[in-house]
Amino acid sequence: MAWAVRFLIPLLFYLLPFSIFGEQLYWYDDDRKVLIHERSYDATLGIYVYRFGSSSDAPRRQLTGDIIVKFSGIQSADSLADFQARYSVTLVKNLPVGTGYYIFSAIDRETSLDIANQIYRDDEVQFAYPDWLTLGR
Predict the structure, then answer these.
(1) What b/e readout covers 94-112, taking b as 16+ CB neighbours within 10 angstroms?
(2) What gap in Å lies between CA 65 and CA 113, rounded to an integer?
């Protein structure tokens, strides 16, 4: 009986929605806060998958580990190095779509969500969001 309690109670906490236990997962799409309705582990893929919509028809997505950032102004090599150290990210490339667009890589997929939200609050940044890969339904 004790083994069942040790196994079932953590499983119950894992299966219930995030908001019951406090922290709701989210990310920012420009100025819009997007709530993540479901996070589950896909053992076949070996990754966590996410759904933004509350229905089972909402597409499943995975984090790539990259973060797309648009700075408010032009960044020098020194300011980019400081930014990378501050957020523990690595510069992947400067996007050729305009001034100040960059892709950074986080330490791993799962931390990229939290780091993107931290970067979003930075005064130097116009927007920051994690890069998502859509897996289908």
Answers:
(1) eeeeeebbbbbbbeebebb
(2) 8
C-alpha to C-alpha distances, 133 to 9, 50, 122, nearest whole angstrom: 32, 10, 25
pLDDT at 5: 42
Query: Which tens digits make up the pLDDT trace of 57-112?
Result: 788 899 999 999 999 988 899 999 999 999 999 999 999 888 899 999 999 998 99
Name residue, tokens 């119950």: 12
Instruction: Measure CA of the first residue to CA of the last residue in the chain; give whole Å.
Output: 38
Q: Is 10 helix (H, G, I), strand (E, B) or coil?
A: helix
Domains and CATH numbers, the chain: 22-136 (3.30.70)
Rounded to two decimals, the pTM is 0.78
Q: What is the DSSP letter of 44?
A: T
Place of tokens 């089972």: 56
Q: What are phi and psi of 3, to 5 degrees?
A: -65, -35
